[in-house]
């Protein structure tokens, strides 16, 4: 169904792209779709991309949604990057809001981010992404490492940022026209180690191609990002840190260490030391969980650094950059 609305003169047309892959996320996916449909003002189109799961696509097509939307199957390699690239090719909005299938957006999210893009120098914007814990939040989990859960972390300040966070981000279509789309060699897949950094690589590539442009963080609106019980564990935490190190190693070879690690240097020299001081201060105030957070800060840094060290030795042997130019993506009806 073609539900694209007729554009209003002077108004940026908008598309919401939600990528999904698993039947296990059916309930939260429906909440994410419902929240996207409740945006005020409404998006010009909503597209749900199903990543190589025909049964899920069939189930979605059989469901009656209150708002017209399109269900499209990923035509690119499996993974989040391929699904997003399909979303770019089938949508028509001048601005694309990418949402994870487990991110439930505020009603004013789209309007808030589009307002940022009314400035022609802004290439994209990211909202606040809040953790929605399905179990009690672990007392040891530090705010500085919320990025391991795809959420806004302590130390990220409003204004210009190097890169967006994928769970709730808005990007101009013209960015893809100039720089190509997401690199499918970096995006997550359902079965592989959760490598990422595809948003970071795209943003670095975009600012090189469009040096007068910038990306911004606007926290006045946002999304609640579901955190299941199996992600509230030490195992997942360390696994995700390790994977981030591997991803940053690949990224540093592709984009250069300067751009790839610029934000990480500030994070290591300012954000993490401040987190350690806060943890010890909490211990002095009679809160033993502060010491656990200090341990988590050190363990997370060590796991990330180990992944990076290993990744640097192997990344050169991996397949080369595989971004798909936007002009090569044929529309799918």
From TrEMBL:
* Swiss-Prot/TrEMBL keywords: Glycosyltransferase, Membrane, Transferase, Transmembrane, Transmembrane helix
The record's listing under Pfam families reads: Glycos_transf_2
For this protein, the parts annotated as crossing the membrane are 290-310
Limits of the Glycosyltransferase 2-like domain: 16-177
Q: Which SUPFAM superfamilies match?
A: Nucleotide-diphospho-sugar transferases
Q: Gene3D superfamilies, alphabetically? A: Spore Coat Polysaccharide Biosynthesis Protein SpsA, Chain A
Q: Which domain of life is it from?
A: Bacteria
**Is Membrane set as a keyword in this record?**
yes
Q: Which family does it belong to?
A: Belongs to the glycosyltransferase 2 family.
Output this protein's name.
Glycosyltransferase family 2 protein
Q: Which organism is it from?
A: Rhizobium ruizarguesonis
């Amino acid at each position: 169904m073609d539900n694209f609305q007729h554009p209003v003169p002077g108004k940026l047309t908008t598309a919401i792209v939600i990528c999904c892959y698993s039947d296990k996320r059916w309930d939260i996916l429906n909440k994410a779709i419902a929240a996207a449909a409740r945006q005020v003002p409404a998006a010009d189109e909503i597209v749900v991309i199903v990543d190589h799961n025909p049964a899920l696509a069939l189930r979605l097509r059989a469901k009656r949604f209150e708002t017209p939307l399109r269900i499209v199957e990923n035509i690119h390699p499996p993974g989040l990057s391929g699904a997003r690239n399909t979303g770019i090719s089938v949508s028509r909005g001048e601005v694309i809001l990418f949402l994870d299938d487990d991110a439930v957006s505020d009603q004013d999210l789209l309007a808030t981010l589009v307002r940022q893009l009314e400035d022609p120098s802004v290439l994209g914007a990211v909202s606040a992404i809040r953790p929605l814990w399905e179990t009690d939040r672990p007392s040891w989990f530090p705010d500085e490492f919320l990025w391991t859960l795809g959420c806004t972390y302590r130390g990220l300040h409003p204004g210009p940022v190097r890169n967006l966070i994928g769970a709730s981000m808005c990007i101009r279509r013209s960015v893809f026209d100039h720089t190509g789309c997401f690199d499918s060699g970096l995006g997550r897949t359902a079965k592989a180690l959760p490598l990422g950094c595809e948003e970071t690589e795209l943003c670095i590539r975009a600012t090189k191609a469009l040096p007068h442009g910038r990306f911004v963080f606007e926290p006045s609106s946002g999304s609640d990002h579901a955190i299941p019980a199996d992600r509230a564990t030490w195992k997942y935490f360390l696994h995700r840190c390790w994977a981030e190190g591997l991803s940053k190693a690949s990224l540093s070879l592709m984009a250069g260490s300067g751009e790839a690690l610029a934000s990480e240097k500030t994070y290591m020299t300012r954000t993490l030391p401040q987190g350690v001081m806060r943890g010890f201060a909490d211990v002095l105030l009679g809160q033993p969980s502060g010491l656990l957070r200090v341990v988590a800060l050190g363990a997370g840094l060590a796991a990330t650094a180990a992944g990076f060290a290993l990744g640097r030795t192997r990344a050169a042997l991996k397949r080369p950059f595989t971004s798909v130019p936007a002009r090569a993506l044929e529309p799918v009806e």
